[in-house]
Structures are given as structure tokens and as C-alpha cells.
């Protein structure tokens, strides 16, 4: 089957490496702002043309690309622009357009679902292949893999898992398209849309967040992402790892209140949280190397 692929990043590269075994990738589209992405290396290696259209509306460079394409199916994988009706209509007469979505739907439609799921303390996440319509993550589920989010699951683990699961899941969906056995399952439940996470969403607010909420935020934002962060005076400090405690504490939110061998206890809104790894100016430290009891985070 001839594939029109739009995407970037590690997930896209992993999926391309899988589907090229069975399908013909006619074109790869990368957002102009992502020029130089690792997907370009894959395209160059396999001599697949790469394009950077700003739009697919009628009369645009992207629209002309569509008209000249022989592709039968479009795949969106990490492509953040909303494709217009001209794009969807072009592929509706063929095998349609599908999207690889990193969250459970309909509860986590929209952007940054992997991080939102962890930050919200969700117990289960999902990798989902969706049919694309004019809405945002609103159409039928074509393939899904659900996984447990434990108290210790981090965004790093979910990122590694998706690089394993998504290529296989996409391959299964494409096989079902080829054989005419594709099942389209409607979404069930209460829909909620989530916005793209910004750097400010990773800031810890000790006075309004419980220890559980701070802990979940750290897990949702740790490497390979930017890291949850706080301030000591004007100095920004990233907090990469933490551990919940069975002992209860009281005191001023943001205050470092007790040293442990493996880190320092910081007071949140309701109780203390043990901080075990931090980063300052790009270098990682044990908290005990830079901080001490009595210091105040803001």
C-alpha cells in the first residue's frame, strides 16, 4: 500500500522503520519548524522525498503535493498541525487518514496526553490509532494498546514503551486495511480535551500542590522531558526524581525540612516529599550536594 506520511520525532522514525517492510512510503511531510528532524535521516537513507508545506488548503503548496500523490492512505504521527477538509477529502475516496495518538480516548483527547495522564495520577494509559475526521481525536478507534500507570511510572518509561508498541500496533492496523478486516470502534465515555503542555506547566507550586501532585508532576516531566522545576531565590532548579514518604510532616510549603541519606524532604501543601535528584545549569546533583535544611523554594 502506498503511504503518505506526516510526522517527526522518535515515534515517527520507529513506525517508518516498521511499515517500510511491507508498504511503499511515497512522501514524508515534516512541519517547517521541525526541519532537521531525525525523520529526515530515515528519508535520505531510503531515498524518500521530504516536503515542508505550510498548508494543505486549496491553492497551497501542500495541496499541489496532494494532487500529484499516488498514496492510498495518510498517516499522522507526531504531526501537530490540524489537516484541513481538503486533505481529508482527498484520502476519503481511498483508504482514509489515520492518526497515532499517545493517550486514552475520549478522556485524553488533544495534546500532550502521555504527560497529562501521569500528572493527573491516572491508573491507566493507552496508545491509540484513530481514524481522522474534522474534529480533534473524535473519530473511530482502529487500534488500541492499554497499559497500567503505576505509582512509579515515569514519562521516560512511557516514551520507551511507545517506541515498542506503536510500530506493532500500526502494522496490525495496516494489515487490516489491506485485507478489508478493519474494525472501527466508537469512543465511549466522557470526552475531555487537553492543551499542549508548556514550560510553565512544569513549575512546582508548593503552596497549592499536595505531595502526591508534586510527585506526579515530577514523574510526568522528568527526562527525556524538561523536568519539573522550582526556584531558590532567582535560581532555577529542576527536580528529576523524588520518593513518597510514609511519615507525615507539617510546616511551611516549599521549605526544606529534613535531610535523608538519599536526599532532602521538602514540604508541600499537605506533607513532605523526599527529593532525590536535582539538576542545576544542566548538571545533575544529589540534593545534599547543593541544598540544606531551612532553605526555601518558591
The radius of gyration is 22 Å
List segments where confidence is low: pLDDT < 50 over at least 5 consecutive residues.
Answer: none
CATH class of the largest domain equals Alpha Beta
Spatial gap, N to C terminus: 55 Å
Q: Helix segment count?
A: 8
Structural class: alpha/beta
- Bulk shape: elongated
Strand content: 25-35%
The count of β-strands is 15
Describe this structure in words.
This protein is α/β, with parallel strands linked by helices and 298 residues long. The chain has helices at 9-19, 38-45, 61-68, 85-92, 113-119, 155-179, 211-221, 287-290, and strands at residues 2-7, 24-29, 50-51, 73-77, 97-101, 109-110, 124-131, 141-148, 193-194, 228-232, 235-243, 256-260, 263-267, 272-280, 283-285. The strands form three sheets. It has a seven-stranded mixed β-sheet. Strands 10, 11, 12, 13, 14 and 15 form a six-stranded antiparallel β-sheet that branches. Strand 13 and strand 14 (272-280) form a beta hairpin. The longest helix is centred in the middle third of the chain and has 25 residues, at 155-179. The mean pLDDT is 96.
Amino acid at each position: 500500500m502506498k503511504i503518505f506520511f506526516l510526522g517527526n520525532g522518535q515515534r515517527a522514525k520507529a513506525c517508518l522503520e516498521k511499515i517500510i517492510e511491507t508498504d511503499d512510503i511515497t512522501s514524508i511531510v515534516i512541519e517547517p519548524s521541525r526541519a532537521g528532524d531525525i525523520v529526515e535521516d530515515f528519508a535520505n537513507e531510503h531515498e524518500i522525498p521530504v516536503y515542508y508545506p505550510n498548508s494543505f488548503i486549496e491553492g497551497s503548496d501542500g495541496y499541489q503535493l496532494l494532487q500529484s500523490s499516488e498514496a492510498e492512505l495518510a498517516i499522522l504521527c507526531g504531526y501537530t498541525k490540524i489537516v484541513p477538509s481538503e486533505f481529508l477529502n482527498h484520502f476519503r475516496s481511498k483508504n482514509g487518514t489515520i492518526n497515532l495518538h499517545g493517550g486514552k480516548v475520549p478522556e485524553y483527547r488533544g495534546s500532550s496526553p502521555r504527560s497529562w495522564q501521569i500528572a493527573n495520577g491516572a491508573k491507566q494509559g493507552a496508545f491509540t490509532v484513530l481514524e481522522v475526521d474534522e474534529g480533534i481525536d473524535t473519530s473511530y478507534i482502529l487500534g488500541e494498546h492499554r497499559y497500567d500507570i503505576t505509582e512509579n511510572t515515569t514519562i521516560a518509561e512511557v516514551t520507551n514503551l511507545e517506541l515498542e508498541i506503536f510500530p506493532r500496533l500500526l502494522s496490525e492496523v495496516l494489515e487490516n486495511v489491506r485485507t478489508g478486516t478493519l474494525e472501527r470502534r466508537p469512543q465511549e465515555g466522557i470526552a475531555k480535551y487537553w492543551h499542549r503542555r508548556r514550560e510553565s506547566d512544569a513549575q512546582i507550586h508548593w503552596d497549592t500542590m499536595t505531595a502526591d501532585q508534586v510527585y506526579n508532576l515530577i514523574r510526568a516531566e522528568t527526562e527525556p522531558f524538561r523536568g519539573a522545576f522550582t526556584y531558590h531565590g532567582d535560581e532555577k532548579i529542576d527536580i528529576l526524581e523524588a520518593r513518597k514518604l510514609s511519615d507525615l510532616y507539617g510546616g511551611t510549603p516549599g521549605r526544606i525540612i529534613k535531610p535523608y541519606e538519599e536526599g532532602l524532604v521538602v514540604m508541600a501543601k499537605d506533607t513532605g516529599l523526599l527529593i532525590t535528584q536535582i539538576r542545576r545549569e544542566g548538571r545533575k546533583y544529589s540534593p545534599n550536594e547543593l541544598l540544606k535544611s531551612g532553605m526555601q523554594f518558591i
